[in-house]
Amino acid sequence: MTGQGAVRPDAAALVPLGTATLGEAWPAARLLAAPPRPLAPGMAMAGPALTVHCRPGDNLALHLAIASAKGGEVLVVDYGGSTESGPFGEIMALACQMRGIVGMVIDGSVRDCAQIAALGFPVFARGLNIRGTSKGDRGRIGQPVTIGGVEIAVGDIVLADADAIVTIAPADLPAALAAARARAAREAVMMDRLRAGETTLAILGLDGRDTA
């Protein structure tokens, strides 16, 4: 279905495909360098970015951003790379879930990692710190942030898993999703051939090359 009234694919469809597949299939995908890491194994998420500039040592901007969410977003938080405090924990993770936020990437630390994992709320952070924060700086919501050398604007599609964090332009989502699905299908065929006894050299047409 195309044209006016076409149903736009949901970014969540990228999650089972993964960052590695999307990154290979869609060269325009932008890869965060040394990205924040998932709090627990298996955490993965995808959605349009809701960007937040949050002053290190203060988390009012996060509370304001969560309250403004429409649902389906990934919080992308510029915390200045600071790991000296934990501006986000279990209570805020539950607040995110109640607002329909699907996960968070923060260039900083959080707290309550076990409790957040038990909630099933994906969080990608620089570290852990139980030190509290003040609530006096409104920060900036909805302005571009830069994390891992990549500028991320509101609405950019963010995909994060154990391998990486990548972003794509919102307009690229349908084509990027189709390309990633096609690559995943090709890889499934390759794995079937491996299980049947073929080698990667034969499958990739490399068996005639000098491998010495």
UniProtKB/TrEMBL annotation:
Cofactor: Mg(2+); a divalent metal cation
Binding residues annotated for substrate, in chain numbering: G89, E90, I91, M92, R111
Cross-referenced SUPFAM superfamilies: RraA-like
Keywords assigned by UniProt, alphabetized: Magnesium, Metal-binding
Statement: the UniProt record of this protein carries the keyword Metal-binding: yes
Residues annotated to bind Mg(2+): D112
Keyword Magnesium: yes
One MF term in the entry's GO annotations: metal ion binding
Range of residues in the leader sequence: none
Superkingdom, natural source: Bacteria
Family matches, as PANTHER family: 4-HYDROXY-4-METHYL-2-OXOGLUTARATE ALDOLASE 3-RELATED
Protein name per its UniProtKB record: Putative 4-hydroxy-4-methyl-2-oxoglutarate aldolase
